[in-house]
Amino acid sequence: MDSIVVDIGGTNLRCGIFAKGQLQQVSRTKVNNFINASSAEPRALYQSFMDQLASALSPYLRDYPDYPLALSFPGPISPQGVVYSAPTLWGNHLQNIPFLEDCSALLGRRVLLMNDISAAVWRYVESQQDAFCIFTISSGVGNKIFRQGNVLLGELGQGGELGHHRVEYGDRALPCDCGGKGHLGAMASGRGLVQLAKHLAGEQGSSFARSYLGNLVQHNPAAITSEYLVIALKQDDPFCREVLVSSQQYLVQVMSSLYHAMGLQRFIFIGGFVAALGDIYLSSLRQLLVQESWFGLTVEDMSRVCELGALDDDHSLIGLGRYMEAHHG
Predict the structure, then answer these.
(1) Three-state secondary structure call for residue 13
(2) Distance CA 158, CA 153 (A)
(3) How far apart are CA 186 and CA 182, in angstroms?
(4) What family is this protein classified in (predicted)?
(5) Which region, left, alpha or beta, applies to residue 26 given φ > 0 means left and ψ of -120 to 50 means alpha?
(6) DSSP E strand stretches across 234-276
């Protein structure tokens, strides 16, 4: 079934058409979020976002009046379409929003609403017997597990929120967008890596001062961005390598738990930060993994447990389209 597909992220709002198995006519807009609209009251922020969504979708709804509409959203969603929270989009300011109901009323069309990582999963499903965990490393950290033909979720839509699992309790327990501290997303997302780099720049002033990154930002840690981190990592900057390894060590802890609890041996990594680094990110992660000892796996096995997804940001859009084809065709 051809459809209008929308991926709402913490940074970008993307719309497109999925027709005959292909993604087409993609548009992108910087989303109104709690960072770039920090002065807005919570309800005003929400209204601003909804106005932006309606504006972005207007040409698609006009030109494709018979196409169903599928949206992916960066946060946990109840079976009734209530968004419990959306830290990367709204910080900790808005919870329990009847988003599906609001979207249907605003857009005048029946809407399929799905968590963004649940949507991305369907891009990579090849058979109902597949078993894998997908991680996205972008504004935050999200994950979902696919097993025995389904994305594994609780009865109320819980699950796949390892970005809010606490992995650090010491001085490096950096703040998460949700208001917590030391969460995986605060340590290993694109935003988290920026936080961690700033923290380590303070801890290791001389190393930072000598680094490629330090020169890029004129030795001002406050000026560090994810874009500068990517540039410096591509120059094999030792300081930035340490930031990346420190971040990925938290991921490896979580992956180990998933393997030992569920037997998962396939982990797919996607997201803007991963796409920007590509094999640099994967190679660093594999070097950490082969130093691990997961019960029952050889070193060769360990080198194969992680892989990159496609190096684009179309995962949720394509996943939504394929889901609509498979389940609503």
Answers:
(1) strand
(2) 6
(3) 6
(4) Belongs to the ROK (NagC/XylR) family.
(5) beta
(6) 267-270
Q: What is the pLDDT of residue 39?
A: 62
C-alpha torsion sign, points 164, 268, 272, 64: negative
Tell me if residue 147 falls in helix, strand or coil: strand
How far apart, in Å, do the first and last CA atoms of the chain sit?
4
Local structure of 123: helix, strand or coil: helix
Phi, psi of 14 (to 5 degrees): -125, 135
| Contact in structure between 14 and 35 (CB atoms under 8 Å) | no
Whole-prediction pTM value?
0.86
CA distance 295 to 25: 47
Q: Pull the structure tokens for residue 175.
A: 């703040």
Structure tokens given for 179 = 């208001």
Give me the residues of the chain with pLDDT under 50, please.
none
Strand order in the sheet with 141-147: 150-151, 141-147, 131-137, 267-270, 306-308
Tokens of 56: 């972005």
**Residue 183 gets which letter from DSSP?**
B
Nearest to 243, CA basis, from 228, 258, 253: 228
The per-residue pLDDT for range 26-54, each reduced to its tens digit, is 999 988 888 876 667 878 888 888 999 99
Which domains, ranges and CATH numbers included, belong to the chain?
3-123+313-328 (3.30.420.40), 128-308 (3.30.420.40)
Strand partners, 92: none
SS3 state at 144: strand
Q: Which amino acid is at 10?
A: G
**Chain segment 130-156, per-residue pLDDT in tens:** 899 999 998 889 899 999 888 998 887
Q: State the DSSP H helix or E strand holding residue 312, giving kind and residue range, or none if neither.
A: none
Asked if 113 contacts 73 with a C-beta cutoff of 8 angstroms, the reply is: yes
149 residue type, one letter: G
Please report which helix (H) or strand (E) contains residue 112, including its range. strand 111-115
Which H helix or E strand runs over 302? helix 299-303
pLDDT at 177: 84
